[in-house]
Amino acid sequence: MRIWAIANQKGGVGKTTTTLSLGRGLAARGHKVLLIDLDPHSSLTRAFGVPVEPVPEGVQELFAAPPHEIAALARHSDIPGLDYLCAQASLATLERRSANQPGLGLALQQALARHGEQHDYILLDCAPTLGLLMINALAAADRLIIPTQAEPLALHGLDGMVRTGEMVERSRKRALPISVLPTLFDRRTRAGNETLKLMQERHGERVWEDAIPIDTRICNPAALTVPLLGDDYPGRGMAAYRHALEWLLLSEAAQLERAA
Ligand code: ADP
Ligand code: MG
Predict the structure, then answer these.
(1) Whole-prediction pTM value?
(2) What is the per-residue burial (b if ≥16 Cβ within 10 Å, else e) of 188-213?
């Protein structure tokens, strides 16, 4: 089982879109995949058509005493091999409510350890807040994937997220490889191209040498949710996500080989 955290302390950079697209790509390759929605805004949950009322069972129950098991909470999607675990709006106050319950930073990691090898890949769609949920995700993750908008203002957010990842790595004394996926890239603008160059200069091999382009087929302003696009969906955006997944799998294979 491999656990990927998809995180950035900035919102609207394509985290949920990336989680869904990579998840679909992995399922299309025959893997058993579980997507966990760790954002109280529940975009990923809603992409699967789950309404916010009545409140679905999900991540909140991993923090209950005693915690529920992932297998009992996860739902099958219509896509073979792709399961998901819902977020709830109440997660926004989890931190405040659990102030007198120590040890909750490892709740997700412990739930995943009990879950064992029932899925090949677990993808964690994080909220853009450096709080208890993000700490849980980074503690559990085998790798950190940072989607980052290819525009100048996003560079600070990227640097901050990289520092957070490195800090977690030092404190847990277990490697947390970082991969950066430039997203929402507009090839025609100088700002986009220069930002991409700067990202590569600052973060080197961690950065994918390509970028996910802005593709109007990915965003659907009429819908309030991130659309759940098929791995075979036409267009530059999804094609780029397929390439990004190949790169991620190749770099992971190289990391695992180095660690062996
Ligand atoms: P986050 O999870 O980081 O907040 P989302 O994945 O929800 O970001 O994306 C934010 C918005 O941008 C959504 O409306 C989404 O559909 C849109 N979007 C994401 N990636 C692309 C893209 N490559 N091209 C066009 N729109 C995109
Ligand atoms: Mg999101």
Answers:
(1) 0.96
(2) eeeebeebbeebbeebeebbbeebbb
